[in-house]
Amino acid sequence: MKNNALRSVSLLLAGLALAPLAAEAVPSFARQMDMQCIACHTEFPLLNNFGRLFKLSGYTLSVGQSELPPIAVMLQPSFTHTQQGQAGGAAPGFKDNNNPALTQASLFYAGRLFGPYATNLFGPDGAAIANKFGVFIQATDDGVAKQWHWDNTELRFASTGEVAGLPVTYGVYANNNPMMQDAWNSTPAWGFPFTGSSLAPTPAAAPLLQGGLAQQVGGVGAYALVAESYYIDVGGYQALNSQFQKSVGIDPTGQTQLAGTAPYWRAAYTKTVNNSSFEIGTFGLVANTFPGRDSSAGQDRMADIGIDAQAQTSFDQHDFTAMLTWINERENWNASQTLGNTTNSADNLHSFKATVDYLYDKTCGGAVQLFSVDGSTDPLLYGGSATGSPRSNGMVLQLNYLPFNKAGGPALWPRSNVKFSLQYTIYRCFDGASRNYDGLGHNASDNNTLYLEAWIAF
């Protein structure tokens, strides 16, 4: 029972990770470039071609005009309504339903590692090297869990060169979330929905790469973009010890803990034609793991392989982006079955997302996503499921309004921005329960969620 509880906590943490809590669009980048947010984004945090170049350049591109330190702040006040209330409260200190919250408040140090001060610190020659180091550090106050913690964090070194006469942008990185270094929004770390409610139920099952290791691991890797078309990234991740995690505000209880180094890879082909860009790629991670951080019964093994594609075009006052993501996870439960956490010795889990995002005049628009997660039936693994199945599917609808996206914020603190969003998530199936299934006293549609948010960045 104890190990079962640990596995349940692990599944819950993975489910919560489906609602991204971090932001790639920070005004310190815009101030460093002396440009509006739309130079790198359509609707933030959705990157355009120049935004992807900025990221691959290690957050270091600059026009050298801003004297402000690379600091930014983000606030996300919100309101959550679910079709049925949650008995006992949506979270400690919250009502069963209709909950306002400051979902999160984040402080960023993001841009050139030494900000605009490298020349003063190291002189012109030293600054030429120092300014190739970029950083993205986010500390977050979770207004639902009422806990400060470190969030997405990365250090990069990036430069350019030539190989066989072909231009190459390359870099090395260290971060705490697999795929946060990726430059496309069709991969999990920065994928749609970019934000979501942590006061609403979310599906319990998710592949490990879909947020299951975020802030729990440390990894290093290297990447290169050759001829502006061929992208390759290889790296490896290891679990951070529990004491360190506690010191940065992460609760390690019930985690799926990496045993040794988990190799990660990413390959993509991208092409730009006039005002349109296209990308197709693959990514993956293979991990030996301890279920619930319990090493007494040996190791499980998880292999995630993903395929993604993205198409983006802009014309007149219109911006369109389409994204596809598919992840298959092969799970061998050598330890978990021994511990009584799984029925089967091996399972499969697969996740699919298809998203279309539209923005008119850089100001108002919306997005539609179809999503699905499904896999092997395993009554012990999915003990909270109505049918022992991980199956969940449905649709996310979102409307956005960005009043300052074109002109930026007030002169007092330039390049500020805000996005007002109305998001509605509709479930056709939730943790194995369909709309017409009431074996556990609820239907999938009971989890339908209306989420209103102001995403304020300054």
Name the features.
single chain; about 450 residues; mainly beta; Porin; 16-stranded antiparallel beta barrel; 7 helices; about 15% helix; globular; disordered N terminus
Report on the architecture of this protein.
With 458 residues, the chain is mainly beta. The protein has a single domain (2-457), classed as Beta Barrel (Porin). The chain contains seven helices and 18 strands. It has helices spanning 2-16, 27-33, 49-56, 118-130, 208-212, 242-247, 334-338, and strands at 71-82, 99-112, 133-142, 147-163, 166-175, 217-226, 230-239, 257-258, 262-273, 276-290, 300-315, 318-332, 346-360, 364-375, 392-401, 417-430, 433-434, 449-457. Strands 1-2-3-4-5-6-7-9-10-11-12-13-14-15-16-18 form a 16-stranded antiparallel beta barrel. The relative contact order is 0.15.
In short:
The protein has 458 residues and is mainly beta. It has helices at residues 2-16, 27-33, 49-56, 118-130, 208-212, 242-247, 334-338, and strands at 71-82, 99-112, 133-142, 147-163, 166-175, 217-226, 230-239, 257-258, 262-273, 276-290, 300-315, 318-332, 346-360, 364-375, 392-401, 417-430, 433-434, 449-457.
